[in-house]
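Long-time lurker. I teach an intro course on protein structure, and each term I like to show students one example going from raw sequence to a predicted 3D structure in token notation. This year I'd like something fresh instead of my usual example. Would anyone be willing to generate the tokens for the chain below so I can use it in lecture? Attribution to the forum is fine with me.
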Amino acid sequence: MTMFMDIRELSEYLKIKTSTLYAWVSQKRIPYIKIGGLIRFRKEEIDPWVESFRKSSEKVIGTLQNRDSREIDSLIERAKGEAYNRNRRETRPKSVLRKENRDGAV
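-- Reply from a regular --
Happy to contribute to a lecture. Here you go:
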């Protein structure tokens, strides 16, 4: 027997805000049906949809576990180098012209 849930019931079932569910419905990111303008969800479709996220995350975790720790350290260092200003260890980009040069106060 098909079990239908409304937004509130699915929100409680998944522990997700109703506003998030409405957004996912409008973006067609979650399986749903409309019955006379009312949004309904089939539990038989929601459970596999939820499981699809578990499978993809397990693949990512498995991939990371198979990497050499030196390779991961290298990736982290490269990312930090791209994100931080090397001179001051700040995240904002270097200014091409310093304020003094722009104001003519050099």
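Some talking points for your students: The mean pLDDT is 79. The chain is about 60% helix and 10% strand.
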